[in-house]
Specification:
mainly alpha, 10 helices, globular
Length: 235
């Protein structure tokens, strides 16, 4: 894999892009994420998540592993690194076939929404090169770039998705008090900021410097979850 690097300095912020960041990070953005639990459904069934304290531990672990890795890929795409090289890097960082399939399906869904919301030649080119879907974090970063957002903005979207999806899923799976689930996310906010900043900083050093944190239990349970005949969430 080559070590392509991004231009020095932060990407310029377009006028009004703070609002674009809210649109992209909004759970109601039609990108299909609501149908996925980020591994929480399998954790609930295994008894590893029983209450808001377990949810906090699960989300913290996911934030510093899968969340960090996704944030680095998203930041790299927002910064202008080669999206095809980033997609290959995402494959290398996703050992579970089930999670690779999920990431590409979510990428395809996000691509459709992003191309309508923020038309972009770069999004069009990636869609043509990966008709079955690029990895979701790479599409997320290109969507952020098309919306006038920078690498740290894209990283923030990725880290927030990594924990908000499981939190929302657990509310449904356990009938958990949504106020407690929201409290979990609020208390994780400082760590989300730190992870996003770390991911964005790595993006400036090129694809080979991007985080590759792993969560083996998430990989193992994703494979088992994909084989369940009945489940509430797709992953």
């Amino acid at each position: 894999m080559s070590s392509s690097r991004a231009p020095d300095g932060p990407a310029p912020r377009a006028a009004g892009s703070r609002a674009a960041l809210l649109v992209l990070a909004d759970g109601r953005f039609p990108a299909g994420g609501h149908a996925h639990s980020g591994g929480a459904e399998a954790a609930v069934k295994a008894g590893r998540i029983k209450d808001h304290r377990d949810l906090a531990a699960f989300c913290r672990g996911r934030l510093h592993t899968a969340g960090l890795t996704a944030a680095g890929l998203a930041a790299g795409a927002a910064l202008g690194l080669d999206p095809l090289e980033l997609d290959e890097a995402a494959d290398a960082r996703t050992p579970s076939p089930a999670l690779r399939t999920t990431a590409r399906k979510l990428g395809r869904q996000l691509m459709r929404a992003a191309r309508i919301t923020w038309p972009s030649a770069e999004l069009d080119a990636l869609a043509a090169a990966r008709p079955r879907g690029a990895h979701q974090p790479v599409v997320l970063g290109l969507a952020a770039r098309a919306a006038g957002l920078g690498p740290e903005d894209a990283a923030h979207c990725a880290v927030y998705e990594s924990v908000s999806g499981p939190a929302t899923a657990v509310v449904r799976l356990l009938s958990l008090d949504p106020f407690q689930a929201t409290g979990v996310l609020a208390r994780l906010a400082p760590e989300m900021d730190q992870v996003a900043a770390r991911a964005a900083e790595a993006a400036y050093r090129g694809v080979d410097a991007l985080p590759a944190a792993s969560a083996p239990l998430l990989d193992i349970t994703a494979e088992a979850h994909a084989a369940w005949p009945v489940r509430l969430f797709a992953s």
